[in-house]
Amino acid sequence: MEPWQIQLMKNILILHGPNLNLLGTRQPEVYGTTTLNDIELMCQKKASQLGVHVECRQSNHEGVLIDWIHDARGNFDGIIINAGAYTHTSIALMDAISSVEIPTLELHLSDIHAREAFRHVSYIGKVAFDAIMGHGADGYPMAIERMIEELG
Ligand code: DQA
User: Fold this and answer.
1) What's the domain range around 73?
2) Which of 4, 31, 41, 104 has CA atoms 20 to 30 A from the CA of 142?
3) 104-118: per-residue pLDDT in tens?
């Protein structure tokens, strides 16, 4: 592919928050048996089918996620974020998303509204244009499709 063609491709940042590095073995009855590495492969496959570029990153640290969101400005067209438990606690992540003004899609493997009451609050949901949840690992390629639809 020519450099100018790569430049025209939509660039999507996929962020995974705390404990998602343990996918595959972490509460498989809730999150399934697909590993984070498998999810990245699914995302790369969907991205090449759709002709977009995706970059996947995971951190257990709130500040690292915030820094990545800040650095996304000017480098990425959209952010897909599964913020893990920070979804329910982090006003700082919410503010970071508002600050960079990059279209952001909330993602969860489980349906947070069908679980414990403390998971029903989502700070990410207050600033994301949409949310995909309850589809397990399949939610990731679905989220890439939804993002492309949004970016037009
Ligand atoms: C999660 C749901 C959160 O409530 C939880 O803390 C996670 C994973 C999900 O993908 O279903 O870590 O974001």
Assistant:
1) 3-151
2) 4
3) 999 999 999 999 999
